[in-house]
Amino acid sequence: MRFSADEAAHYSEQGWLLRAGAFAEWELAALREAAEETVAAVRASALAPGGGPEFRIGEGHRLQISSATVIQWEWREGSQEVRLLEPVTHLHPRFGALWEDLRLVEPLRDALGAPAVAPFTCKLNLKRPREGSEFPWHQDYPYWYVRTPEHAHEIATAILFLDAADGGNGGLRVLPGSHRAGPAPRDRAEPSQFLADAARFDAGRERLVEAPAGSLLFFGSLLLHRSTPNTSERPRRALLLSFQPAGRPRQEALPFRPHRVQELP
Is the pTM of this model over 0.90? Predict the structure, then answer.
């Protein structure tokens, strides 16, 4: 399960690594079922009277706290489609078991150079057919920085693709090697102040990561990446588990200080 020498060299140079075929179809079927059950339950609870407080960020994007998770609703005004749930592994035992799955744990030990790793945060990402919206250029680093500035560079993520991901249904696009430049310049005209300024780096070098269902993608917090809208009739569902060296608190136990993003370039 550990990185081979070639994989370690690729991860170090490129900032990401894809392993296709890591999960079998029967495992994916069970996880897709868990995903839809979870989304339906959270959505029903959130839409019920007293379902939880709502707030808006950035350009008016709607979030809601319900079922001990933060729901990001789809960006189209009035949409009742869930875009993302964070955290998510507490909502279904099949998700929670992934924190101990050696297919994630062992490669992340190598990615982080740590003898043992532990959870930081987790998400269920959904791009529904014809409605799944884009996510512009960003690094995870600023989002972690406002929680744990001293350790934000020591967090890495595994994405488990429950569906095949490609250019049509909102596949991930990465900027190879961008992690080596450190924190990217932020787009200061963008309301949230967390997104990267694509005018200040060579976005033309991007690479579309075409990932068959069951693939695992590993990357660190400093890799620039984005995703496009889902313009297809196919779903794009993915679980994201972010790990850190063992012995540190999870994201939800850390104070959220968004003003600290102003300390970054």
Answer: yes
